[in-house]
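Practice problem: predict the structure.
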Amino acid sequence: MKTVKISVLVILFSVVGNVFGQTVSSIDELDQQYMDWYNLDQKTHGFVGVATEKAYDELIGEKKTKKTVVVAVMDSGVDIDHDDLKGRIWINEKEIDGNGIDDDANGFIDDIHGWNYLGNSKGENLHYENMEFTRLYRTLKPIYENVESEEGLSNQEKADYHLYLRVKEHYNQEAQKRTEEMEGITRFEMIFQAAKGIIKNEAGTDDYSIESLKSITASSERIDAAKAFLIERFEEGFTEEVLRDYKRHTEDYVEKYLNIDFNPRKIIGDDPMDITDTAYGNPDVIGPGSNHGTAVSGVIAAVRNNGLGINGIAEDVKIMVLRTTPDGDERDKDVALAIRYAVDNGADIINMSFGKDFSPQKHFVDEAVKYAEAHNVLIIHAAGNDAQNVEEVPSYPSDAYLDGIPATNWLNVGASAPKLDKELVASFSNYAQHQVDIFAPGQHIISLDTANTYSMNDGTSLAAPVVAGVAALVLSYYPDLTCTELIDVLMESSSKIKKPKVYQPNPDGEKGKPVKFATLSKSGGIVNAYEAMLLAEKKYGNR
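Answer:
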């Protein structure tokens, strides 16, 4: 987004994946047309969901699962006490809760439900972090800011210098963008409050509902302009809460994400550049800011048909919680160690709904992904929310190792919308014909929020757990599938969209050019639970 446009869609999509929707205590307070739509199917319900309900109704019935699937959710933390996740949280049976002893000798004390890599042994937890390019800029600026030529630099220094130039440009672009956004917010707030003031003082009402505004009979050039402005904003879906969230997010960006003097990692006490320095963290897997991971977990595993809220996709599933993702960019070291924890402690699938622009210790992550690959653990990753072709604008973590060889246990997931029309691809979703593998519902997703609340959100962050949920569902009935076999099942059985052409996401916020859906991912399809179960039975049912 080059300039600030006062549009609800621009506000939401410019921060998608970072700011979640309004939380409500009752699921009934959210737009009911989108309730569990990702579980529905086009033919029966008119939503391009993944046909979970059809799979349960027509294929599964009373059929018993053969395996409880463990899905590690690497995220901001999970509210493990949410009523809609009862019985769905992984328990380390070899550990005694709260005794301060590493009972199972796995290197972690009291890791009952997983591990928090964003904390210390005192129970202090990190909430906010810099962006990765800010951390790099802070490190490289003192070394290279006065360098004017590569002459005399070693090969490594040349590489670091080129990285510094890229990071500096990225940092300056983001700083300018956020400054302009803050200026735009300030201008909008002034106009918005002025319009309300005119309605109150000159039209005689402080009821700003659309119905009340339309019923105003008093007329003048000022009243008519204020009335039209407010009605247009509210009809777009704008609320003052949206504005507050957007403003808070932008302030956080400037004060924390881009602040080179802000270095919260100090409370952790480790060396984030040393992968062997592992004596940090704590068992508080909820931590601060766990709404994102709670929503992700709900899509995968919320208790089905319990009369409380939503229906998760998989039933015989446990969520292992690995807190790795702060409000800001995650550290490569934390990601790598969490992948290894998941593998060593029995996870079958790892969901990673996060990403960033730079990965200075990518080799840490690569080795961990190879470890997961060797142990048949599937990694599912959100493709990102920048409306970019990730083959042209790289995003990390990525499935391509530093030597160029792709991981065989990895799926990148783009986000789709509810309806079979030109806007089927979510306008914010990243895409790529070879590096995004599959699409899944990721717009207007109602899921769990903290403290027994719910919210509706958008992002590939929600699309990835849809695929993780379908993978867990299939694996619970066909537990002998290897990673590559499970990936093949999901890809081959995905719903291929041939018509209509869809708008290719555009980072400028405008509608992109119409393209064939098949050109936006490797599979050319949207994950489908019903078809995946059929195909798994056909290919592997007799094994």
